[in-house]
């Protein structure tokens, strides 16, 4: 069932019970818009940290097509999406690298692919970044999340389907279904930011489909 909306006052009260608060946002188009948070008068130990999660643009475009399956995408509309996605991503990275005073020492960039394939190592790094000691319970949770099967129901069948919650597979699944022509288009439009983030372009369809060949530096 759908959860009811939380009132801002309720959220504030809950957050005030804890020393650290983590907020996941998909709506911050430009990082510089977060600077207003540092202008807010808060407690003496108030410290903002920004973890910028990025992903291979090819995988993001593939996910958009898969998510909006009812929309009739054309090469032109996908090109527009790719251009906007990578332009904004590049602007954000360049802004962060320029180290504006409010963001200096408060920003880290994280690739989804690294998180999915090295969860324990990345978790350790993130906890160090925010200045918290990682608890044994967190490590156990990560292990369970990556090992335990997920039971779900689909369609009209009452029989449960069991699948492995292996995030490492999500790193390359797009390579098995994305048309080569769209891959090449995204690589052309996003070459600068892909190169900056360590994502490799493919030479041909065979390399694209051969998932044992890594596309990440």
TrEMBL record:
InterPro entries: Gal/GlcNAc/GalNAc_ST, P-loop_NTPase. GO terms for biological process: N-acetylglucosamine metabolic process; sulfur compound metabolic process. GO terms for molecular function: N-acetylglucosamine 6-O-sulfotransferase activity. Pfam families: Sulfotransfer_3. This is Protein-tyrosine sulfotransferase.
């Amino acid at each position: 069932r759908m959860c009811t909306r939380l009132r801002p006052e309720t959220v504030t009260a809950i957050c005030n019970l804890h020393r650290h608060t983590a907020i996941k946002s998909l709506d911050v188009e430009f990082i510089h818009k977060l600077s207003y948070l540092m202008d807010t008068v808060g407690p003496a130990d108030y410290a903002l940290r920004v973890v910028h999660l990025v992903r291979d643009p090819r995988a993001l475009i593939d996910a958009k097509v898969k998510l909006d399956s009812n929309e009739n995408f054309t090469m032109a509309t996908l090109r527009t999406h790719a251009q906007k996605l990578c332009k904004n991503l590049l602007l954000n990275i360049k802004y962060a690298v320029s180290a504006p005073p409010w963001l200096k020492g408060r920003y880290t960039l994280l690739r989804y692919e690294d998180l999915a394939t090295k969860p324990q190592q990345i978790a350790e790094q993130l906890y160090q970044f925010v200045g918290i000691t990682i608890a044994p319970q967190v490590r156990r949770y990560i292990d369970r999340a990556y090992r335990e099967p997920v039971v779900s129901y689909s369609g009209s069948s009452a029989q449960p389907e069991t699948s492995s919650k292996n995030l490492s597979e999500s790193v390359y699944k797009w390579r098995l279904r994305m048309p080569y022509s769209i891959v090449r288009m995204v690589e052309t439009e996003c070459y600068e930011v892909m190169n900056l983030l360590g994502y490799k372009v493919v030479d041909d369809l065979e390399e694209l489909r051969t998932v044992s060949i890594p596309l990440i530096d």
